[in-house]
Write a structure and sequence with these properties.
The protein has 98 residues and is mainly α. Helix content is 81%, strand content 0%.
Amino acid sequence: MNAYNIRQLKKMREQVASYQVGDLSLQSLIGDLIFLRDSLTETKDDWERELTYLIVDLESANTYALEKNNGKLDSMTSKIVYDALEKLAILIEKSMEA
């Protein structure tokens, strides 16, 4: 993993943490993760696929919340977001170790 990609992965980790403490909206987090994913210069296909699936989970929860609850997560969408963020953190950390 080159230094540029490590910086991008660290930024992903920072954005997830910012969302978790309430400094970033879910919509902004999703956009940032997509931008950072697309800026990586080298990834393994299975890693990128897993990251994309997790981003889609976040997008789905966000869309549902916007349509049904004026943008507020309910118990179902909160669980989806929590699970996706937990898996994202693991995925990012493993990639940084590689």
